[in-house]
Amino acid sequence: xxxxxxxxxxxxxxxxxxxxxxxxxxxxxxAVLRERRVRATFFLLGESVARWPALARALVDAGHEVxxxxxxxxxxxxxxxxxxxxxxxxxRAVIAHRTGSxxxxxxxxxxxxxxxxxxxxxxxxxxxxxxTDWGRDWTDDATAGSVFRTVTRDxxxxxxxxxxxxxxxxAAPHAWRATLDALPRLLDHCAERGLRVGPLGDHGIARxxxxxxxxxxxxxxxxxxxxxR
Length: 229
Description:
The longest helix is centred in the middle third of the chain and has 19 residues, at about 80-100. This protein has helices at about 1-5, 25-35, 45-50, 55-60, 80-100, 115-125, 145-150, 175-190, 220-225, and strands at about 10-20, 40-45, 65-70, 105, 125-130, 135, 160-165, 195-200. The model is unreliable at about 210-229 (pLDDT under 50). The protein has about 230 residues and is an alpha/beta fold. Helix 2 (about 25-35) packs parallel to helix 8 (about 175-190), helix 5 (about 80-100) crosses helix 6 (about 115-125) and helix 7 packs across helix 8 (about 175-190).
């Protein structure tokens, strides 16, 4: 399922951030992206948007995309259809209301994309997208160097990069600083290879067929590194 994993235009890299917004960290990422004139997609938690609506709106005002990451940072694997649909609908509604932008993308917390969640996303006109490359930027030992090396190890055109702009749901609450320090180097790396960096909306992922209810459950530990290119 290339579209589910985020494979897009081979001349482009989709830059995505999970778990925000958070006033401790998100403004610093906004500053770097503004300085570099790069837009990204931010997968937001509904409860964080409800708590810090002005910050969520600032993302859209700066030209970034916003997507749904759930209401709270909870795995939905053991939740039933009604609860799953309610949580996604609630998050979608608050994001749209507070930012003025209706989300079109959905990324499940922990990358656990169950059939139930995919059905709910489809019903809410949300396209599920996971990722092809990440920085392992939530660990206690994450550094700018380790984040950069991990995310670029197999990075190629068409990739969707997963990073985190918030400590929400992370084991190491200050790991986002390593991500922030690695970000300019990552952008330089892509530029040197002639790859454009931008949001999922510019990535050329077809929406048709994505989110089919017959897609099998995807569990994070079973698929990485995933998919092979």
